[in-house]
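Progress against Task 2.4 (sequence-to-structure conversion) is shown through the following example record, which the project officer requested during the mid-term review.
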Amino acid sequence: MWVGRDGRVHAEEENPPLSVHGVLSTLAWDVAEHRGVAGPGDRDSVYLLLQFLDRHVDHITRHAELTTEVDEQLRALVAALRPLTGDRRRRIGKCPVLVEVETESGEPEKVRCSATLYAPMDDGFSATIACHVCGNSWAMDEWLSLGDALDPETAS
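C-alpha cells generated for the chain above:
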C-alpha cells in the first residue's frame, strides 16, 4: 500500500488481471523451447500466437507436462475473460459423489469429491452438469436428485 500524489491510498491487487498476450506469448515460447524451434516474434499479435500454438498442438498433446501447463494457462485465461464476454458460469454446489482414495497407510477410504459444480453454459435440453474432477455427470432429468444431494451450505 502507498499514498499517491493525489493523496489517496493505493494498493496492488492480490489477483491482478491476466494479460492475454503475455500468457499466450509465454506458452508459445515454452512450446518453442520444448520443441527446439524458433519462437514467435516479440511483436506478434494474439492471433499469431494462437496460430503458433495451433501449429504445435500435436507436439503439445504428446508431452504430459506441456499439455498440463497449456491446459492450466488456457483455462485461467478463459475464466478471466468470462465476465467480459458475458459467459459467466454459475456455481451450483460441491460434487456429492463418494470417491475412493488411498490413505497414508495405504488403505482405501471413501470421501466426498467436493469439486465445485457449475451450471451448463448452453440452454439446450441435452445439457448436463459434469464434475471435472471425478468425471460424474448428471443429465437434466437427474438435476432434482442432484439438488437433493448437494449440501445447502456449500451450494452458493
